[in-house]
Amino acid sequence: MSRLANKVAIITGAAQGMGAAHAKLFIEQGAKVVLTDLNEEKGEALATELGENALFVKQNVTSEEDWATVIEKTEETFGPVNVLVNNAGITMAKSLFDLTLEEYKRTVEINQVSVFLGMKATAPSMKKAGGGSIVNISSMNGLVGGAIGYTDTKFVVRGMTKAAALNLSPMGIRVNSVHPGVIATPMVVQEDTKAAVEEFSISIPLKRVAQPEEVSNMVLFLASDESSYSTGSEFVIDGGLTAQ
Question: Which residues constitute the signal peptide according to the record (predicted)?
Fold first, then answer.
């Protein structure tokens, strides 16, 4: 049985990496999926690959106007939204002294402000649908320290999730955060972080970096009705790192 049958989902940052893995699994499980990203070429190609139940919309997740457009196009094509996955995010492997103010603000806009905008824009559509599930992708660095800028914003996503869960529960909207550890995505294995990630993987209790699909399985659970009594909670997928 399809676990997301008759559900309409929006996934940000879905052109590649974890977002693309989420989109593929959601389609397999019966959802209609709107993929958003700034990378139009990859986003369109993936939507075409996924078929008629997928739609790509180019989006700057830090733009309130773009969020309104995404909701409008989603409802026009598939109907009211049941699931939102706030997946878009960036990281920089720089110290407190090397990170510029512009880079810091950009990290805050993409990792933090976009989550606020996404929840605010999507909640009215979910209310029309009779409820829904919002999955905010934080990080294990929303639980423990890490890179400056990235850690800050991922802690905020965790807090926003709890606040939004209380705000939106009367509408039947659940809000949870997912906290991946080291995942083999383009963002993580980019040139300025690749060597550090390989060295760090030795310290992971399970002795390996996770694949995006392993996170997708958790996101699927939270998007589905199987997690109907879970809201305002953290779901950790880190190979045991934060257990040490």
Answer: none
Beta bridge partners of residue 80, listed in sequence order? none
| Inside any domain, residue 97 | yes
Closest CA to 88 of 134, 38, 43, 40: 38
Specify whether the CB–CB gap between 10 and 84 falls below 8 A.
yes
The total number of structural domains in the chain stands at 1
Give the count of beta carbons closer than 10 Å to the beta carbon of residue 118: 25
What's the CA gap between 191 and 54, in Å, rounded? 31
Count other Cβ atoms within 10 Å, centred on residue 145. Answer: 8
Residue 56 falls inside a structural domain: yes
**CATH code: domain of residue 112:** 3.40.50.720
Q: Which residues of 22-33 are buried (b: 16+ CB within 10 A; e: fewer)?
A: bbbbbbebebbb
Q: Which is the catalytic residue, given 26, 56, 150, 235? A: 150
Distance CA 226, CA 60 (A): 31
Residues in the chain, overall count: 244
Residue with token string 């992971």: 204
Q: Is 242 inside a domain boundary?
A: no
Q: Quote the pLDDT of residue 221.
A: 98
Its pTM surpasses 0.70: yes
Residue-wise pLDDT for 58-100, tens only, equals 999 999 999 999 999 999 999 999 999 999 999 888 999 999 9
Residue at 194 is within a domain: no
> Is 150 one of the catalytic residues?
yes
Q: Which domain holds residue 52?
A: 8-184+211-237
pLDDT, one tens digit per residue, over 114-132 is 999 999 999 999 999 999 9
CA distance 83 to 176: 12
